[in-house]
Write a structure and sequence with these properties.
- The complex is a heterodimer of chains A (about 110) and B (about 260).
- By secondary structure, chain A is an alpha+beta fold.
- Chain A has one domain: hypothetical protein PF0899 fold.
- Chain A is built from two helices and six strands, in the order H-E-H-E-E-E-E-E.
- Chain A is elongated and about 55 Å long.
- In chain B, about 45% of the residues are buried.
- Chain B is globular and about 70 Å long.
- By secondary structure, chain B is an alpha/beta fold.
- The chains are: A alpha+beta (about 110), B alpha/beta (about 260).
- Strand 6 of chain A pairs antiparallel with strand 1 of chain B, so a sheet runs across the interface.
Chain lengths: ~110, ~260
């Protein structure tokens, strides 16, 4: 359940932004979670309300936008879609595929008052 | 104050900040308006990685290790793979050649740190409580508490867990994943993130191979599927089989790092 630690980081990042961007309440949090990241979106949803309780994002809406996995094969140079982070190239079978998209896990933006 | 991260926490590791107080809407003087939604909602761009805080601390730790020539390993495995026994036997072989220190991570108890201290080297236990992994901020504090010598080996034994610790950089030179032959040879495929993140895999308890259904070749093939560059050493910590390959690898790296 390292999703709880990540959500505590979310809360902390919100609190830091509240000071620098001068807001007192967050009504919506949008996260971008790549398909190849080590985060389970359902676990984030499950923990979000618990971790945000008592913070300036209590009762905020959580939007999780998925980012598809993409890699470039180091053998055949083709760009391939990836469902998991360590799968071989779907064209030539090489295990050397460099992930170029989908490992992201970040806070994109907030709606604040 | 902490010498690595600069925070004012005296001891171990509670990295949650105090909540920031919201702006207070004062109603001291009667300003006579109806209370309605006069504060408009607005969008604030953040674009910040969820692990950015941990990664910042990890880079600070790494800089400290490089500055003091401390060769640091992050040992990861499932519970019971034999990390602590591996460390105890490693310390017995190497402790007269260079200084060694150990940071132990477990949810509860001082048992593992006690076992390490019995060998005569300094050890610090971090109890993570509900957390399933060590983080770089906690390691920064542990480094300061331990007072680790320069030109040395620091072994960080992470919480037994093949999932979460793979995401948290502690500032180590290498992650070393320990897999014992009593666990099953398909662990690299079941927990690919960890075997992908590791630079070295130790296949431990090889003395038990005659008694278990563990195919070493299959395990190695699976590990290379998720990490073609992974190095592999097969050994037994308790019986000493092949153990010098591991201790020679360590000694070579400690020496190498100290000449950089």
């Amino acid at each position: 359940m390292h999703e709880l630690s990540l959500l505590e980081n979310v809360r902390e990042i919100l609190e830091n932004h509240a000071v620098s961007q001068k807001f007192s309440k967050v009504t919506k949090v949008t996260l971008e979670i790549g398909k190849l990241s080590s985060v389970e979106p359902e676990a984030l949803r499950f923990g979000f309300d618990v971790v945000m309780k008592g913070s300036l994002a209590e009762n905020a809406e959580l939007i999780i936008s998925d980012i598809a996995g993409l890699g470039v094969c180091q053998q055949c140079s083709l760009q391939v879609e990836m469902e998991t982070s360590h799968e071989p190239c779907s064209h030539c079978g090489s295990p050397f595929v460099k992930v170029i998209q989908g490992a992201e896990m970040k806070i994109k933006d907030l709606i604040v008052i | 104050m902490c010498g690595i991260c600069g925070c004012s926490q005296p001891g171990k590791i509670n990295n949650r900040l105090q909540p920031v107080n919201g702006r207070v809407h004062q109603h001291d003087n009667d300003h006579g308006h109806q209370h309605h939604d006069h504060e408009a909602e607005r969008l604030v761009k953040v674009e910040q990685d969820l692990l950015s805080k941990n990664n910042t601390y990890a880079e600070q730790n790494r800089a400290y290790f490089q500055q003091h020539n401390i060769f640091t390993l992050n040992l990861v495995s499932s519970p019971g793979a034999g990390k602590t026994t591996l460390l105890v036997e490693t310390i017995k072989v190497l402790k007269d050649r260079f200084p060694i220190a150990v940071i132990e991570g477990d949810q509860q108890t001082e048992h593992d740190a006690d076992r390490i201290r019995a060998t005569g080297v300094p050890a610090l236990q971090i109890n993570t409580g509900r957390a399933c992994h060590l983080d770089a901020h906690g390691i920064g504090h542990a480094i300061m508490e331990l007072g680790i010598k320069a030109n040395s080996l620091l072994a960080i034994e992470n919480v037994g867990n093949l999932v979460c610790p793979s995401s948290f950089d502690l500032g180590e030179a290498h992650k070393v994943v320990v897999l014992s032959v009593t666990e099953g040879d398909d662990k690299p495929l079941k927990y690919p993130d960890m075997f992908h993140a590791a630079d070295l895999m130790l296949i431990n308890k090889t003395d038990l191979l005659p008694y278990v259904d563990f195919d070493v070749e299959r395990c190695i093939n699976y590990a290379r599927q998720v990490n073609p560059d992974i190095q592999i050493i097969q050994l037994s910590s308790t019986k000493g089989d092949n153990f010098s390959v591991w201790t020679d690898w360590l000694a070579a790296h400690v020496k190498l790092e100290s000449h950089v």
